[in-house]
Design brief:
Elements lengths: L18 H12 L19 E2 L7 E2 L6 E5 L1 H7 L4 H5 L5 E5 L7 E5 L7 E5 L2 E3 L19 E6 L3 H4 L6 E6 L8 E9 L3 E12 L2 E15 L10 E15 L4 E17 L6 E18 L4 E17 L3 E18 L2 E16 L2 E18 L2 E12 L3 E15 L2 E12 L3 H5 L10 E14 L2 E19 L10 E21 L2 E14 L12 E11 L2 E10 L2 E2 L7 E2 L2 E13 L2 E8 L7 E3 L2 E2 L4 E9 L2
Length: about 625
């Protein structure tokens, strides 16, 4: 692996990301042993936790070699985040771009990679947009979420196309225990309101859950000078799960989610009050069988549909994805073998486009865990109806060389086929080639009780990068999509978690260089330095917490001529139980009312406060 060409001492004073500050934060987190799990940035999960996403099968966290983060329900509730992307942006290696307030076009960069290079699943159901490329993050409702697993690094050898930079999997609530209803209500400035209700439980062989949520806000002027009005949003979401344990061997599960977002925004025409109407629905059915202690099978069928419409500006796009998955697993002693057959079908209706494609994949996996050694090998071949065969692989090794210490190394390849819009719209070219990635990374991790320290260095090279270029081979006089770029995404992520004098501390520092190799410029809207710090403690019956996010400057354009300033944000929250079944949350985000932009011309959310009350009938 080439030496990472990152200079720590060049962070701008405006963002506050100096080497001395980073050293101070990490030193404080290292100071002495602690005993409690820390939340938010650089989350430190309990060793008994299980991760599903890394290998597409349940693994004890101690067996996982990938760079991962787990976010549970308590962390989500305390976050007070308005959107799922606001929550994810507080995690290591992730940053956002957004053209306005909640519900407007949102990009999520994992390790500096384009939005389309992160594969996204909701309860195992693939979510993607064949018009914009990547998950429609602005349409995913946070109220549906029970748990989130983030896997950094290529995972195409497990998931096929899309997983160039990593995978984010979102899980909704699964019923357990006796019947438990809940009701929540909240309010904040700018006429922000939230109402939620639902229930979950288990009765005999049947487990169930159902949740409903409504979010509204008057909003703020998200594009000053274009249309002086408030750009608010309204979102309705629902999720449900049913599970039936037919016998000791067989189980069936049904999952469904739905979210409808109506978000105002200021478009290109002055004075025009545009609305973006976004609908996202997922449906999944699975059967699993545990034939013996060693051998298990899982069969699933799923579909997601995304519909995006602009009014009064005329625009309508609909994406439908279908997946069929058959996975077998054999676990014997230190060895785990998996074999997967998968079929993916994509369809886009975006007049005049009405196109479909499919991929058939075969994936093999092998895991070995014994003593100080952990090995994970994956190989997959996908046959695409348009592009033929694509073969990807991944290899990872971990060595626990001392108590609490483990070193890891991994390498993998990945690809993403062009979206149907990139090929068949007026800006498209049918002859576009799949984008391909090659990644290497090394890591060093230490853990003692809930105290943790980790460093990961990575480098990903992307070839056949699809950019929007000059007019030429397509029908549009404004420009065409083309395979004209190469990118290098390299960086280092440091994470720490500790307890000092009863205060839980956690921190992450990302130093990265997402660069276009053809031009030598940095990729647009991505910072080179990101620092995220969180602290919480208990005072009497209250849990008090604070978060600090710092980002260095970014460039709005590919030529690096238009600069987006760095920024620093402070968020505060407090929560307590006011009665046996009642809990209250108070939160203030952007306490300093810092003015900053994630996309040029679109100020991000000003200072916001929120008070929520929740009753749980268990």
């Amino acid at each position: 692996m080439n030496r990472l060409n990152i200079r720590l001492g060049r962070a701008p004073a405006r963002a506050g990301l100096s080497l001395s500050l980073a050293a101070m934060v990490l030193s404080a987190a290292w100071a002495q042993p602690g005993a409690e799990q820390l939340a938010l940035a650089a989350t430190a999960p309990q060793l008994s936790e299980v991760l599903v996403t890394a290998a597409r099968t349940a693994q004890p966290l101690t067996d996982v070699l990938a760079d991962v983060t787990l976010i549970d329900r308590d962390q989500i509730a305390q976050s007070g985040a308005v959107t799922i992307t606001d929550l994810l942006a507080r995690q290591p290696g992730i940053e956002l771009s957004r053209s306005g307030g909640p519900g407007t076009a949102t990009g999520l960069f994992l390790r500096g990679a384009e939005t389309r290079f992160t594969a996204v699943y909701i309860d195992g159901v693939r979510v993607d947009s064949q018009s914009t490329g990547g998950a429609p993050w602005e349409a995913i409702a946070l109220g549906q979420v029970e748990r989130i697993e983030i896997v950094r690094g290529p995972a195409a050898a497990v998931y096929g196309s899309d997983a160039v930079a990593g995978v984010v999997q979102i899980f909704t609530r699964q019923g357990e225990g006796p019947f438990a209803p809940y009701v929540g209500i909240g309010a904040g400035n700018r006429r922000t309101g939230k109402l939620e209700a639902g229930f979950s439980g288990k009765h005999g062989a049947l487990d169930y859950s159902l949740g409903l949520q409504r979010d509204v806000s008057r909003g703020y002027d998200s594009h000053p000078g274009s249309n002086p009005d408030r750009d608010g949003y309204r979102q309705t979401s629902a999720n449900g799960r049913l599970g039936l344990q037919l016998s000791d061997v067989h189980r069936v599960d049904l999952t469904s989610t739905y979210a409808a977002m109506d978000a105002q925004y200021d478009g290109f025409l002055p004075g025009l009050d545009d609305h973006g109407l976004n609908r996202l629905a997922t449906l999944g059915a699975s059967w699993s069988a545990q034939w013996s202690q060693a051998y298990s099978t899982r069969l699933s069928v799923s579909e997601s549909q995304q519909r995006y419409e602009m009014v009064p500006t005329p625009y309508l796009s609909r994406t439908r994805l279908r997946n069929y998955l058959l996975q077998n697993q054999w676990k014997e002693g230190a060895h785990t073998l998996t074999g997967t057959l998968e079929r993916r079908e994509d369809h886009l209706a975006n007049a005049p486009i009405d196109q479909s494609r499919h991929q058939d994949g075969l994936a093999l996996g092998y895991g070995y865990v014994a003593g100080a050694h952990t090995v994970q090998l994956n190989l997959r071949h996908d046959s695409d109806s348009e592009f033929g065969g694509q073969t990807t692989g991944g290899v990872a090794y971990g060595f626990a060389f001392a108590p609490g210490w483990r070193a890891t190394a991994a390498a993998g390849t990945a690809f993403r086929v062009p979206t149907l819009y990139q090929r068949f719209s007026e800006y498209g070219q049918p002859a576009l080639l799949p984008e391909k990635g090659r990644n290497v990374e090394v890591g060093l991790h230490w853990a003692q009780a809930a105290s943790r320290l980790g460093v990961t260095l990575y480098r990903t090279r992307v070839s056949n990068l699809i950019n929007f270029g000059a007019p030429g081979a397509c029908l549009s006089p404004f420009g065409c999509y083309e395979n004209a770029g190469k990118a290098r995404l390299q960086g280092m992520t440091l994470t720490a978690a500790h307890q000092v004098a009863g205060v839980n501390l956690s921190a992450s520092l990302d130093l990265q260089q997402p660069k276009n190799l053809a031009t030598g410029t940095l990729l647009a809207r991505r910072a080179q330095r990101l620092l995220k710090v969180a602290a919480d403690t208990r005072v009497a019956q209250w849990k008090l917490g604070a978060e600090w996010q710092l980002a260095s400057h970014r460039w709005e354009d590919a030529a690096n001529t238009s600069r987006l300033s760095g920024y620093g944000l402070v968020n505060l929250y407090a929560s307590t139980t006011i009665a046996r079944q009642w809990a209250v949350l108070v939160r203030v985000d952007n306490v300093g009312d810092r003015s900053y932009q994630l996309a040029q011309g679109y100020p991000a959310l000003p200072r916001s406060f929120f008070v929520g009350l929740r009753w749980t009938g268990r």
